[in-house]
Specification:
about 425 residues, 2 domains, elongated
């Protein structure tokens, strides 16, 4: 019995010695590979565990998944469908002093380009300038009283086109369309021309029927003179800085107020608000007041910087700009309170703020001409307070319009402010 046990022990020791000897003489690279393989498998297992845990959390967070799916789709629709540099149907005023069949034919050719859309017919150039100042039209076509006579006599009938050049893209589109129409019309009429050898010539007195002096005959039957108003040099800062004021206010005001109530919840001070006798409307009003002061400070910074660095002209009253900015700030603050009332964390509030910021920038006319957007995109843009503030700020700073001229824009922002404040007070509850 003891001999069998000792034999088994010897065999076990022999196997262990054989295994130890094999491990001792194993190549170093084989040992290293086995150790690295084990470590890699362990690291991979840990990384995959964290990844699965993070994926489960994302799937449970409906708001984050909504941003993952919704933001790319919205960006594709906005960039691919709503954004368009091809300007069409510019609201245009018509001053037809000639009022003849040839002038009406000219108006028809202008509208056939699809760039001009005659929406106002006025009696004088001063009235047309007044409509341009108010923003009711973006361009005006002035046909002189002697247009038909100059056209038929071949003296080069001149048409004056006034354009709101506060938007350089729109001004260039108007000039390109007018020049294109002029070239096509003159090329079509050249087959009936007696020939001027490519330049102006003088007619002898015997051939002159309407005067004793020789008259200058120009080779063009039709000529457009485009006059850029409010931004003659077509400088981009003049177009951008007034709108940038609204973009900056939108970014800061909405983001700061959207975090105000949520911050109270996360820091634990929300319980003190519940214990106080402050009503919901009083709480919302108190939350708005400090940020209104911050917004006014930002307005001063942007306006002074625009004057000093970019030489942006100020044609209107700074007091009118301050009143319009105050209404716009209140509208953005109420939207921020709505976001803060429906979210439970600062991360969610930040996400919703940027979700609103993207359409505001793209559909308000800040980066792209509002007239170039399709009608559904324009309808959506009309719901945004930034759209109305950009019109008001450009009108006051560049065209010199007053608050009375900007009453439609102020009314839209006041309506947005009232609806936002009502929604914020309804959605807010003094409960944990």
């Amino acid at each position: 019995m003891s001999e069998a046990r000792s034999e088994k022990t010897r065999r076990t020791l022999a196997r262990r010695l054989e295994t130890a000897s094999r491990a001792a003489f194993r190549p170093v690279d084989v040992v290293g590979r086995s150790i690295l393989g084990a470590r890699y498998a362990l690291v991979r297992r840990r990384v995959m565990s964290v990844a699965r845990k993070e994926l489960r959390q994302l799937l449970r967070d409906r708001l984050t998944m909504g941003f993952v799916v919704g933001v790319p789709a919205i960006q594709l629709l906005l960039f691919g469908y709503a954004i368009n540099q091809d300007i069409r149907h510019i609201p245009t005023g018509l001053v037809d002093h000639s009022n003849t069949s040839i002038s009406r034919q000219l108006v028809g050719e202008l509208q056939a380009t699809q760039t001009f859309d005659v929406t106002e017919q006025v009696r004088s150039e001063q009235e047309a300038r007044r409509l341009l100042e108010r923003g009711a039209i973006r361009a005006a076509v002035v046909v002189p009283a002697d247009y038909a006579r100059a056209y038929y006599r071949g003296r080069g009938a001149e048409i004056l086109v006034l354009v709101d050049a506060a938007d350089p893209i729109l001004a260039r589109a108007v000039r390109a369309s007018a020049n294109g129409l002029m070239e096509r019309h003159n090329r079509r009429q050249q087959q009936f021309d007696v020939g001027t050898e490519g330049g102006a010539r003088r007619v002898t007195r015997e051939r002159t029927s309407f005067g004793a002096e020789p008259e200058l005959i120009r080779p063009e039957f039709l000529r457009f003179e485009v006059l850029n108003l409010y931004n003659p040099e077509l400088r981009t800062p003049v177009f951008v800085v007034p709108a940038l004021l609204g973009v900056i206010l939108t970014t800061t005001m909405i983001l700061m107020t959207s975090l105000s109530i949520v911050r109270e919840r996360e820091r634990g001070s929300f319980e003190f608000l519940i214990a106080t006798p402050v009503r919901r409307t009083e709480l919302m009003a108190g939350k708005l007041l400090p940020y209104i002061g911050i917004g006014l400070v930002q307005i001063v910074i942007v306006v002074v910087t625009g004057l000093v660095l970019f030489e942006v002209p100020i044609a209107g009253s700074l007091l009118d700009l301050g009143v319009a900015s105050l209404v716009f700030i209140a509208a953005n603050l109420t939207l921020g309170l709505v976001i803060s009332s429906v979210t439970t964390s600062q991360f969610q509030a930040t996400q919703m703020s940027f979700f609103f910021f993207l359409p505001s920038v793209l559909l308000s006319g800040f980066m792209f001409p509002f007239e170039a957007m399709p009608k559904p995109a324009q309808w959506l843009g009309e719901l945004l307070p930034l759209t109305h503030f950009i019109r008001a700020s450009r009108g006051i700073l560049l065209r010199g319009s007053s608050l009375v001229d900007q009453l439609p824009e102020l009314g839209a922002m006041l309506l947005f402010c009232a609806v936002g404040f009502w929604a914020a007070t309804r959605l807010f509850t003094k409960q944990l």
